Each structure stands twice: as C-alpha cells, then as structure tokens.
Amino acid sequence: MCYLKTFDPTVPMMYFLCVMSICVFTSNPYLQACSLVGGVVMLILLKGRKSIKLLLMCLAVITVMGLTNPLFVHRGLTELFYIGEAPYTLEALLYGISLGSSIASLLIWFSVFNAVVSQDDILAVFGKRLPKTALVISMILGFIPKLRKQYTELKHAQYANSAAGTKRLHRTAALFTACLSAQAESVIDISMSMKARGYGLKTRTYARRRSFRRTDGAAIGIVLALCMICYVYIGSGKLDYWYYPRLSPGGFEPAASGCYLLLCIMPVFFIIKEKFLWRSCPAKT
Amino acid sequence: MKARIVSLCIFLLCIPAICVAGVVFFRDRAVSFASTGVVLLMLAGYFYVYEKKNSQAWELVIVALMSALSVLGRIVFAFLPSLKPCSAIIILTAVYYGRETGFMVGAFTALVSNFYFGQGGWTPFQMLAWGLTGYFAGMLGKWLSKNKILLLIYSALIGVFFSLLMDIYTCLWMDGKVIVSRYIVQVSSAARVTVSYAVSNIIFTGLFMQPFGRVFKRLCIKYGIGTYTTEAAASERTEVK
To answer: Is A169 near chain B, with CB under 8 Å?
Structure first.
C-alpha cells in the first residue's frame, strides 16, 4: 500500500526535509513532543502492527539516554541522590530524556520517510537535476541482483567442486574476484554501447511521467510557510530552552508549537482520506 | 571551470553561512547542525563538480560496478559483524582509477548499501568517511600501487580514521556538541570495532590486492582504460608480447 502518491514526489521530500530539519536540532521540549506525536501517529497509520518493534526500540533509547546522561554530566541544581561523590541531578535526567527523544523522533521519521518515499520517487526528483548521479545509482541497483545471482551460482559450483578444504574467508574472497572478473568485461561492453548510442550528448531529452500541478505548488507553499513560521520563532529566541542550572520557565509559544504540530500531522489527513477511499472502493472485492 | 568556481563558492561562502546559521538558530545544538550542514555541503560540492565534469562512459560504469560489488560485500559478509570488504574494494579501485572515482565509489557504497541497511542521519557521515577513504587512496595511488606493505599500512590507518569519524558523529548526535570525556568514552567503548575495522581492512586488502590488480591491469591492456595506462602498461604489453 502506498500513500501520498497523488502528489508530485517533490512534495513529500520537501515535507520531510522541513519536519526533520527542525525536530533533529531543536532542544525545545514542546517542539520535540509535537514531532514525536506526529511521527508516532504517522508510523502507526502507515505500518500498523509492524511499527511496534521500532516504537519499543525508541522507548528503550529514551530511557537509556535519560538514565545514563546524569552519570556523565553533573550540572543542575536539583540533586536527586549521590553516586559516590557525584550528584545525580534532575536537570541532567530531563536533558538526557530530551536528547533521547530527539534521536527517537529521528528514527521514527526516517522510518515514515522510507514508508512514503520509494527509490523511484528519489530517482524521479533527482533524475532531471543530477542525471549522472541518478544514472549511476540506478546502474548500481541493477548490478546488485546480477552480481548476487552470479555469486550464488559460483558458490554452488564451488561446493560441487569440493573446495571445502580451504578456509571460508578465502573461498568467499575467491568468489568475489570471480564475480569481478566475469562482470568487468561485460560492463565495459555496456559502456561502449552507451557511447555508441550517444551518451553525454547535449541534445538528449527526458520523458516526464507527470507534470507539476497547481495542487503540488499549493502543498509545498503551505509546508514552507508553516516551516518558516517555526524558523522565525526559533531565530527570534522565544523558543530557547535551557536545562542548566535550572529548567527554564518559558520556551512555550502556542503559535510556534501549534504550527509545528500542524506541520507534523498534516499528512495524516491525506492518509486517512486515502484509507477511507480504499475501504469504500467497490473494486476492492 | 564554472563548476570549480561554484564549488569554491560553496566551500568559502555557504559553509561559514551554515556555521553562523547554526549559532543563530540552534544555540544549544549549534555544533551538530553546523557539522551536519558542512558534511552535506561538502558532498553537494563534490557531486556538483562530478555532474559538470565531462566524464567518459566507462568511468561511470566502473564506478557503478565497483560500488555494486562493495555493497554486495557488505550484504554477503553480514554474517561477520563489522568485518566488511567495502573499504578494501574502495581503496583498490581508487589506487587504480584515481581519486575522483575512489570518492564516488565510497560515497555511492554508503548511499546505496543504506537502501538495504536503513537510511539515517549517519548516511552523510558514512558517505564522507568512505569517500575520503577513496580520495586519499587515489591521491597516494602512485606509491600505494607499487608498495604492498604501504598499502596494507594505509588500509589499517584508514580503518581507524573511519571509526574515529563515525564516533564523532555518534557523539554529536547524542550531545549536540563534542564533550571530550564522552568522546573518549565513546572511542574506548568502540575500540573493539575500531580494531576490527583495521584488521578486516588488512585482511581484505591482502586477499584482494593481487586478483583485483590483475583484473584492472587486464582491462587496461585490453581496452586502454584507467590511470594505470602509462609506462607500466606499455612495458607489460611488451612483456606479454
């Protein structure tokens, strides 16, 4: 099942860039909570039961980071107890939890990114702008299964040939070299054929499957506007939050947090709409 | 020429701009923002130059083949933790085909193998670390291709370098800045991994050195490709005759 395919692939990629650029680097707990909430909701909607493992891992990351940070950092005024000579402070504990949740939200958002944006989308966005890189990546993705198939065939041949006397590492290295020497010349043939068909000429054209529509522009505009509001607030210093020596009293801006929460849960609307359409679709049965 | 100017602009203007923006916007995590930005910009500058450069079709194909091979290595050797032939393959490619090819093979190996192992904030750092592995090997290629012991020493050192760079990344991600004590803890707790990187680089470079060299030399003699082409190939060609 794939979601958000009604948009140009630039839209989801822009969206993830905006969301992640804020959630990774901010230390404001309210923004972090927004990104965690949005990420968890999206992850559960997209992956369902498969998301439990990742969520448990994230919980473990937050707990471990929270509990171990006061062992390294002894700043902060509220001492909970002492380990040897060193104080174990509440501020360091909360700071650790904040660090853990920024790692956790990064993991969650990358998982959401992988669920929404496929390799095809990445190539569609960069194929026009970075033709050489996109070509090389698609070639690599083509070579890997080829090499893998050859590797397996050679491995079976080697077993049949009873080369089991040699060490496993040596055998694998020999297989690798065999793969390389078998593929290298055929690959050079590919390059000659590319050259013969006019690779690198200026007059080559690209086919585009889908044009950039007005709704795509509007979606990117909304995403960028929400992101810019957050950035303006961050730049103005109203969202500064510090943990040492004492937790800062301010740092909560309803407008900024609201914008960021809106940004984080915006795709949920489209995903639910698509799910609903799919449920009520007569072609399903 | 234009590409060089643009990449110089990236290096001289954008990187300081990113650092300043990090300090202005994210006071607390300025270092983490700035370093990630710098890593991304370095990669962007390099890829931009690569895009604009007129390269032969065989260069692209060799980059693709060697990256695919080292990704395959990472997949096949997944049964041995942190014992990977990737660095060895990147180093040997760079030695025979020059620093630019080496950089691209390293960067693409990290990028594409993370399609299989999972993308994350570590991807740009891995791309840069492996890219630099290839770049330096290509720079020293003249000496490394002649002296086998030097090649083994280089591969061990670069394994340590790779591990240290990734430790900086881990540290930045955990704290938003480099706390020296935490970095030392990180390095010492990752010491086993560092040593295994160095050892695996030595093992795989030693194993692959001769067969890969043979294949590359053959390509060079048969099709005339590679930086190895000059006198060495000519002399060997006469020997073959």
So the answer is: yes
